[in-house]
Amino acid sequence: AAFAADFAAWVDAQPGVTLTVALSGGSTPKRLFELWADQFSDKIDWSRIEFFWGDERCVPPEDAESNYGVAKELLFDRISIPGENIHRVKGEASPEQECNRYEQEIQRIVPADRDGNPQFDLIILGMGDDGHTASIFPHQNEFLKSPKVCEVATHPQSGQQRVTLTGRVLDAAKKVTVLVTGAGKADVLAEVINKQGAFADYPVSHVDAEDTCFYVDQAAAAKLS
Ligand SMILES: O=C1O[C@H](COP(=O)(O)O)[C@@H](O)[C@H](O)[C@H]1O
């Protein structure tokens, strides 16, 4: 709820500006999408926002695993936003080809910073129980350092393929917000924030955008000192 409101204020504070925003997937943003649709549908000028995703599972949009499918059902179908503002990863396409196509689409719409990196105005991330973020999983550090915009990643347990933004694009964003909820994330979150234990193994620990902020609920924050 705090982030939903802060996002509305952030958009409002930049009148007339088109903003590029990458959404996260998984379970955490579902409540955010519902709140935006329920309470902010007429309070945010959605037509000024170009939506992308930080990662997508390589499944069709109708699949329950589709990050786009979830956002469509809970948010886009309930607000007024031009279809051309929604830049989804086509999870039903060939992963390698789609990775290249999505990279080109990002480069077409998202302005580059002085180093040539696409610079999103805002990237919303989540954190998995294993410390992954976007679809950069532990021990896949090559994606943190990749010179590319996107990579095809593989989920270490399920083998599901994903298209993910790389670490350099996460770090180049003007603003990164990490949403973390639930008791199942408390131990890893404490390690990440306190830089203790296995924190360096968790990809989320390496996100280093200039303005990086975590929004956490009480259950996730239970082990923070
Ligand atoms: O697989 C994914 O996992 C992370 C975390 O998801 P959650 O279900 O624990 O909230 C998510 O940020 C990422 O976008 C998603 O594809």
Automatic annotation (TrEMBL):
Name a biological process GO annotation.
carbohydrate metabolic process
Which key words are in the record? Hydrolase, Signal
EC number, as in UniProt: 3.1.1.31
Glucosamine/galactosamine-6-phosphate isomerase domain: which residues? 1-210
Top-level taxon of origin: Bacteria
Q: In which pathway does it act?
A: Carbohydrate degradation; pentose phosphate pathway; D-ribulose 5-phosphate from D-glucose 6-phosphate (oxidative stage): step 2/3
Recorded catalytic activity of this chain's protein: 6-phospho-D-glucono-1,5-lactone + H2O = 6-phospho-D-gluconate + H(+)
> Which is an annotated Pfam family here?
Glucosamine_iso
Q: What class of enzyme is it?
A: hydrolase
Please tell me whether the keyword Hydrolase is annotated for this protein: yes
> What does the record give under GO molecular function?
6-phosphogluconolactonase activity
The entry's function note states:
Hydrolysis of 6-phosphogluconolactone to 6-phosphogluconate.
Family note: Belongs to the glucosamine/galactosamine-6-phosphate isomerase family. 6-phosphogluconolactonase subfamily.
- Tell me what this protein is called: 6-phosphogluconolactonase
Q: Encoded by which gene?
A: pgl_1
